[in-house]
Amino acid sequence: MTQREVTDQDNLTWTCVQAYAGLEGKAAEKATELSETDEGTVTVVCTPSGQAQTVRLQLPTDWLDETTDEELVHEIEQAR
Question: Which domain of life is it from (predicted)?
């Protein structure tokens, strides 16, 4: 499962992973297909290292490679 970690200005480390990323094979393909919106986004779940609540984000399908750490932190802050 591919994930990313970012740290916000409150020194919380957030671990972000695409929903259904732990599935394999045909199940993973079907889950990814179903989770992608018509706008080309997928659900990403970000879990904090501290007391804050987990957040769910809608990010572009290429978020792992194309979304900067700063953009990811900004999206998390907006969702809190």
Answer: Bacteria
| Tokens of residue 29, six digits | 């393909």
Residue type, 49: S
Closest CA to 37 of 20, 60, 7: 60
pTM: 0.78
Compute the distance between CA of residue 79 and CA of residue 54 in angstroms, rounded to an integer: 9
**DSSP three-state, residue 38:** coil
Domain extents in the chain:
3-79
For residue 77, CA distances in Å to 21, 27, 53 come to 23, 32, 11
